[in-house]
Amino acid sequence: xxxxxxxxxxxxxxxxxxxxxxxxxxREGLAVAFGLALxxxxxxxxxxxxxxxGAVFGAAIAFGVTRAAEGALxxxxxxxxxxxxxxxxxPVRVLRRIAFLVPSLxxxxxxxxxxxxxxxxSPFAQEKAATPDVEAALRARYGVPKSAISFFxxxxxxxxxEGTLGPAIKVRGRTVEQLLAPALPVSLSxxxxxxxxxxxxxxxxxxxxxxxxxxxxxxxxxxxxTIGISLPSFVIxxxxxxxxxxxxGWLPVAGWSGYRHIVMPxxxxxxxYAAYIARLARSGTIEVMQQDFIxxxxxKGLSERVIVLRHALPGAILPVVSFLGPAAAGIMTGxxxxxxxxxxxxxGQWFVKGAINRDYSVVLGTAILYAALVTFFxxxxxxxxxxxxPRVRGQL
Amino acid sequence: xxxxxxxxxxxxxxxxxxxxxxxRWALVGFAFFVVITLACFALPAFAGLDAVTTNPxxxxxxxxxxxxxxxxxxxxxxxxxxxxxxxxxxxxGFAATLSSVIIGVLYGAVSGYYGGRMDEVxxxxxxxxxxxxxxxxxxxxxxxxxxxxxxxxxxxxIALGLVEWLTMARIVRGQVLGLxxxxxxxxxxxxxxxxxxxxxxxxxxxxxxxxxxxxxxxVPSVIILExxxxxxxxxxxxxxxxxxxxxxxxxxxxxxxxxxxxxxxVFLAATLVSLNFLGDGLRDAVDPKTR
Lengths: 396, 291
What we know:
Distance between the termini of chain A: 28 Å
CATH topology of chain B: MetI-like fold
Helix content of chain B: over 70%
Order of helices and strands of chain A: HHHHHHHHHHHHHHHHH
CATH superfamily of chain B: MetI-like
Low-confidence stretches of chain B: none
Number of helices of chain A: 17
Oligomer: heterodimer
Strand content of chain B: under 5%
Distance between the termini of chain B: 8 Å
Structural class of chain A: mainly alpha
Number of domains of chain B: 1
Largest sheet of chain B: none
């Protein structure tokens, strides 16, 4: 990097810090900038350091999760076992992601706290008996002091030392874990089913279209895909609700008490992603079918079926696989809207409720959960990608 | 599909436009989009439509000759509300896209051009933001504004612009990374041109095509995001998203106010579909390889 490059970098950094300070306050802005620097620095960890840091952080997470569920001793055992296995066998790329996750989570908690405290209103704003004494007592009881920094300290101490996400402020007598524990399987099953529908439908349509480019079925399915991308999911959802629930009466309108309730939300959630996957699969298929190894396979006299399934499919789904990570994140956040529309008691509903009610602990709990899930999906995608593409396998 | 000899003798932009002109769907999309935009911005004033005056006597009227799209729960003319709501949706869409293009292009160009460690740091930051569920970020930023300020387009467009620039930055960075090694850039640098000059005169013009394409495709995704926010009760007052959300909220088995849901949905969907067709056409025209 030459001198001018350094000047540009320097002025960009100054602009970033000033912008953060303006948006969050001087002290907080500086802290966030420091956190960002820390996260960026994980890019330079050498392979051995990344191994150690990733294994240690992974063990810490394993300890936290196991202790919350089973107690301290199993937590230690699981953590030690995880650290050993991770250090020995996990690919560097995976450990790097874990090393990246922990500082990211801390920064996420910090930034979210600052943003929530800067938002007008507070969790105690609508209390009936909001005399100063009562409010002070409530703040002390729930661990919500007036300054964002002290809240962050209390929250982090609670999280690290006691391994709990803290009491929910608006739902009396429940901790955030107790609220989210029943909601997580709901959101996960909805999200996974949506992801499976999206991948299956998208691959089927996209590969069919890609095998016969510019045919009628190609144009028809791609036109359909464009429309699928263009419609907001809640419009599709509302239309399905009117047709299948209100007019035909095949499926229940909303709620969550059986497999019939999962159909409409999952399909609604899946359709835009199915459309996107169809496009990716189509262009992937077209590209792969022009490769030399396909010609070789044809020359060997293999049947078209074997060519498509054994030789073209892995190459064609590579772009789809790398899209699955962002798609999983998008499906999970898309579920904010779908869960509200179909009244599904999932994590997304708690986030929206928490954000609107200023229930700080609930918002932070859902944020941690989402960030962890997104990282987990990206890990899976990384591994799947390496498994499918021999060229990447060596780089793990 | 294949670029003929005649095509290669023209400039890249001319060739792209020639290809675009042949794409019927893209042209239909463009025409449709122009019509909707004109209708939203000009029609209410010309036809003397009133989106605000309430008239409780005429509430929930189905479409008729005096109220083409019927009336809403407060007796306001729904045609006027759909058209005026379209203004906000389109404005938010374009403003947020513009800001995301400016931020994304600058960020991506600097990151790709300087490369190396700086690129790594800058892209790590983008990765961090990418890893967050974006709706989460948008909702948090929206909460920074008080309930009354939240109805204005400004907070929405700040919040959306803040997350939408990431993709643009990645695309531009990838392009610039490749351009940096090309001979004409090297030649300009050897002749002693400053970095600013090289980026402004030689690199960015070559990225313009891709930026136009993804900019066009960003507009519909911003409009969709805005409608999500409206649906959750955090969006702009009087936009398509908010009208659709209202329409969804009155869906019930007993009485159907179908026009409250149907008209804004059709307008929203038609705009987004036409923008997507136009964007796809532009992409094929600018970069024929992707077809």
